[in-house]
Amino acid sequence: MIGFAMEVMQGATDENSRGLVRVVVDDREIRSQVIESLKLQPHVQLEVRRLSVGDYEVGTEWVFERKTIHDFAASLADGRLFRQVARLARCPNGAALILEGPDQVRAETGISPEAWQGTLISIGLVFRLPVIHSADPEETARLLIYAANQVGRRRDVVFVPAGRRARTLERQRIRMLAALPRIGPHRARILLNHFGSIAAVVQAAREELMEVRGIGEQIAREIREFVAGDGVSSPDPTATSQMQNGGQE
Predict the structure, then answer these.
(1) What secondary structure letter does DSSP report for 233?
(2) CA nearest 182: which of 207, 200, 209?
(3) CATH topology of 2-153 equal to that of 162-241?
(4) Where are the domains of the chain?
(5) What is the pLDDT of residues 105-158, one digit of tens each?
């Protein structure tokens, strides 16, 4: 995700000369400082209307949901976040989440580092949504413009062989599930075989998780708490280490 943000930002500052960047803004964002920053940018055409999903629509390519760190934490705490992310992931075109605010603000939210990290992993791997970090509204406005230019310029460049992608995705799924509390690679593979996808595991009720061999009531409860961001216990250190080392097995 960091690489995506860096790539979006690099080499895009001279792209505005190619023509107008059209940005549709949801009318509920009308008081946002992002709009004021966009108004100051040359070659930006703004349209304000109600969007069915997301806060910003850039050209015809991407929809962006913007959340400040405090908004993100509040949505996680009251259970709205994953419903919003699921709707965003169903967009027919590209979609991404912009997480706005300095890193040090996260400590003020009361969300544990494990729950925060687990949520970002779920958004990135389960829902396959890029998460782009922005320091403030001004940077968010610049990122929207950079993204529009970069996506337009490189729309047809990226190609990943199907076989290699399948193997990579399987390893990513196992690593992601192994990071759940008391799961590890063995139980992760059992969960994936039982439910068929990470999304199904994440959305499974406690009773459904308990039906899986090797997953008792306690582990099922901890998985649900981890996903919801409530009372999270630390993930398995071995699995976490594997993720930090690039999933080498």
Answers:
(1) P
(2) 209
(3) no
(4) 2-153, 162-241
(5) 888 888 888 888 889 999 998 888 999 999 999 999 999 988 877 765 654 444
The DSSP call for residue 133 is E
Q: Does residue 37 contact residue 75 with C-beta atoms inside 8 Å?
A: no
Q: What is the three-class DSSP state of 61?
A: coil
Dmax (CA) of the chain: 60
CA distance 239 to 150: 35
pLDDT-derived band at 19, boundaries 50, 70, 90: low
Indicate the fold that domain 2-153 takes in CATH.
Rossmann fold (3.40.50)
Considering the domain delimited by 162-241, tell me its CATH architecture.
Orthogonal Bundle (1.10)
CB contact set of 19 (below 8 Å; sequence gap of 6+):
43
Are the beta carbons of 222 and 158 closer than 8 angstroms? Answer: no
User: Mean pLDDT over all residues of the chain?
Assistant: 77
- Using one digit for the tens of pLDDT, what is the confidence trace for 20-56? 788 889 999 988 999 999 988 888 888 899 988 899 9
Burial of 66 (0-12, 13-18, 19+ CB in 10 A): buried
196: which DSSP letter? S
